[in-house]
Amino acid sequence: MTDRSAGRTARIWRDGELVNWGDATIHVMSHVVHYGSSVFEGIRCYETPSGGAVFRLRDHMRRLLDSSRIYRLPLKWSIDELVQATVDTVAANDLRACYLRPIVIRTGEQMGFYPIGVPVETFIIAYNWGAYLGHEALVEGVDVAVSSWRRAAPDTFPTLAKAGGNYLNSQLSKAQAKLDGYAEGIMLDSFGFVAEGSGENLFLVRDDVLYTPPVASGILHGITRDSVIRIARDLGYEVREQTIPREMLYIADELFFSGTAAELTPVRSVDRIEIGSGRPGPATLAIQERFMAIAKGRVPDPYGWLTPVPTAVGAGA
Fold it and tell me: Which residue range is the domain that position 184 belongs to?
């Protein structure tokens, strides 16, 4: 049975085997515990009229392989195998909708940060998790502040990799924002241009043109970000990927976050300066509606983004 009140589920995929939730453990001496040596993905499975469907699963697994390559983590599983393992994990937990966390970690029981030759394990976790910033945030928008913590310079951490250690300053930014009474922080890059939220990409609308920082601004190359760009262009909006000065946030007509966890969350104020009318704007609402309609199977999926989950599959991967 699934303990939905706690978010936890029954089974976790661990290197080719579905194990009980409580058995998916690692040793305190594991490399990842001491040095943050992990790469991961955040993926959503949505309930559609024909059952569960995982959103852009292959794209997420491709990025997981990319992150593993960047951080020299030897991953023995192919994209196809990881896709099947994910579908098996969702089905084994009898889920129609959930958040998914594939994660590749260095384990072992030895000290020292040199990573080569350290054992590597892969897990896929299915978790019950609702709207990241809350359901009300998706409808009403959130109040945010520009963080004093910046994204890493391009010659420090590789931000194209979705790595556990890369999120240490995200934790600082998020904590600062929450303790100061905001829902989220917007982080600047090492040159002082707008980068992203602590765990979301960012879009700005001005005169019906969408602007978003480029990957060179220390951002994660978000899959939801890519989905927004494709949907927006198909809806007739011009989209520009370019460096964005901080002050452009304050004169935006609309502003919104994008991400697997956050989905499309409008921003109603930055540093107590109201954005536009202080309500989600027409571009935000149109893109948000189209995105969710595709993800939840309310309209046909023209992009091939959904991977159906059969109602029953074998326990293997």
Answer: 135-295
**How many independent structural domains does the chain possess?**
2
What DSSP element (H or E) covers 89? helix 79-92
Q: Which residue, 77, 100, 130, sits at the end of a domain?
A: 130
Please give the positions annotated as active site. Answer: 162
Tallying the residues shown for the chain, one arrives at 317
Instruction: Note whether 103 and 180 are same-domain residues.
Output: no
Q: What are phi and psi for residue 29, nearest 5 degrees?
A: -85, 5
DSSP three-state, residue 249: helix
| CA 133 centroid distance within chain | 13
pTM: 0.93
The CATH number of the domain holding residue 17 is 3.30.470.10
Residue 242 burial by CB count (10 A; 0-12/13-18/19+): exposed, middle or buried? exposed
Mean pLDDT score of the chain: 93
Domain end point (choices 130, 163, 186): 130
Check pLDDT > 90 for residue 49.
yes
Mean pLDDT calculated for residue range 57-63? 98
- How far from 123 is each of 89, 98, 179, 215, 248, CA to CA, in Å? 10, 16, 33, 28, 41
Beta bridge mates, 20: 11
For residue 239, what are the CA distances in angstroms to 56, 197, 204, 230, 268? 21, 19, 10, 9, 21
Q: What is the pLDDT of residues 131-145, one digit of tens each?
A: 666 677 888 899 999
Residue 316 lies in a domain: no
